[in-house]
Amino acid sequence: MPEAAQSTSETFTLSGAVHVLLQFDVCEEIRLDRLRDLLSAPTVQQPALKHPAPGYVRYKRPPVVEPTEPFLLDTGERLLGEIKYYDYGVVSVVLQLPFSGPWETLIALAGRWAWEIDFAAHASQIVRLRLQAAAPALIKPYADWLSEDYLIVHVRHITGSPAAADLIAAHGSRIAQVVRGDTLPLSTQECHEVLQSSISYYPTDLTVIGWNAAFLYDTPAGAEAAIQLLEYANSQLLEFRHYDELLTQVLDTVYDSFEQPSNVFTRWRRAGSANRLHTVLLEVMELTEHADNAIKFLSDMFAARLYRLAAAKVGVPDYKDLVKQKINTAEDLYRFMVDQFNQSRAFFLESAVVIILVIELIYLFRGKGL
Q1: Distance between start and end Cα atoms, the chain
Q2: Quick one: pLDDT band at residue 346, thresholds 50, 70, 90?
Q3: How far apart are CA 276 and CA 284, in angstroms?
Q4: Which keywords has UniProt assigned to this entry (predicted)?
Q5: How far apart are CA 295 and CA 232, in angstroms?
Q6: Measuring CA to CA, how many Å separate 177 from each of 65, 114, 193, 313?
Q7: Which residues on neighbouring strands pair with residue 209, listed in sequence order?
Q8: Within 10 Å of residue 63's Cβ, how many Cβ atoms?
Q9: Which of 154, 226, 254, 258: CA 20 to 30 A from 104?
C-alpha cells in the first residue's frame, strides 16, 4: 500500500546483516598461489546461482580469503570480519553485523555507520599487519594506499514477506534513506532518483544500489552473488583511480620536460622520457585488462546487468573513460616525442655526413696542393 496511507501504528520488523566493505590498493599484483601457501587460506567459492541456468559468475583467479579478529565498536557492537586478497593488488576487508528491528533502527544504523565511524582506520591497521606475513607474495607494493569504502544492507526477512513492488510502494522512502545514509526524510524527487537504480530477478527480491551504499532484500544465497559483484565493482573503481593518478603523474612529468627550451639536444634527451612513457603505457594497459577481465559472466545476464548497474553507480565507467583518455594522450605524446627524436637523429646523421664530406674534401684539396 502507498506510504501515505500506511498506518503509523503498524510495526514492521526487519532482520538481516549490515556489511561494511573497505578496500585498499596495496600493490601492483598479488601472487595468490604464494599467498595461499603463506596464509594457509582458501579461495573464494564461486557465487551461488540466482537461477538454475547453466551460466554463472566466474572469477578468473578467485581471491584468497581468511577470517580476521572481531571488531568491537565503542557502542559495544561486535563485528565479524574477513579479508580477501585479489590478484590485481586489492585487499578487501568485509565487516558484518547482524541486525533485527524496525525501519527506524536500520535507518539510524545505516546513517551512523556511513558517516560517523572511521572503519577505514581500523581496517588499514588490520591489513598492514596481515601484509607483513604476506610480503613475499606482493609484487611492487605501494607506500601509500588508495582506499574505498561501501555499505551493504542485506535484509533477509521483513514482516509479511512483501514482494519487491509492494516493498517499494510501502517503504520506498525508507529504502532511499538507508541507501543515502540519511536519517532525515528525503524529498520525493530524491527518493525517485535513488529507487531508479533498482533491479530484481524474482518478484520477491530487490537490490537498490547507490554510490556509497546498497540495499539488498533477498535470501542469503541470492544476496551472496550481489555482495561479491558490489565488492568487485568497488575494487575496479579503486584500480582505475590508481591508474588515473599514475598517468596524471607521468603526463605531468612529460609536460614539464616540454617547458624546457626546445633544441636538437633536448629532443635527443627526450628519447629516454619517451621510452619510460611507453613502458608505463604498456604496464597500465596490461594491468587495466587484467583487472577488467578478473570476472566473467557466463550466460548469466542478470548478474551482468547487476554488475553494470553497480559499476555505473560507484563511478567505474567515469574513471575508466578518464584512464582511456589519458592513455590516448600519452600515446600521442609518445609518438610526438619519438618523431622529435627521429628528427634529431636524422639531423645528427646528416650533420655527420656533411662533416665527413668536408673532411674528405679538405684532405682531397690538400693532397692536390702537394
Answers
A1: 115
A2: low
A3: 12
A4: Membrane, Transmembrane, Transmembrane helix
A5: 8
A6: 32, 11, 12, 16
A7: 214
A8: 25
A9: 226
C-alpha cell at 74: 565503542
Decide which of 274 and 74 is more confident.
Answer: 74
Amino acid 301 reads M
Q: Residue 340 has which C-alpha cell?
A: 622529435
45 — pLDDT class (breaks 50, 70, 90): low
Q: Do the strands 213-217 and 138-158 form a parallel or antiparallel pair, or are they unpaired?
A: parallel
Q: Which residue has the cell 555499505?
A: 151
- The DSSP annotation for 107-156 comes to HHHHHHHHHT--HHHHHHHHHHHHHHHHGGGEEEEEEEEEEEEEEEEEEE
Task: Give 123's contacts (C-beta < 8 A, 6+ positions apart).
Answer: 22, 24, 93, 95
The residue that leads in pLDDT, 362 or 208, is 208
Average pLDDT over residues 342-354: 67
The mean per-residue pLDDT over the stretch 44-50 comes to 53
Angstrom distance (rounded) from CA 15 to CA 251: 50
**Residue whose cell numbers read 599467498:** 35
CA-atom Rg of the chain in angstroms: 28
Q: For the beta carbon of residue 113, count every other beta carbon within 10 angstroms.
A: 22
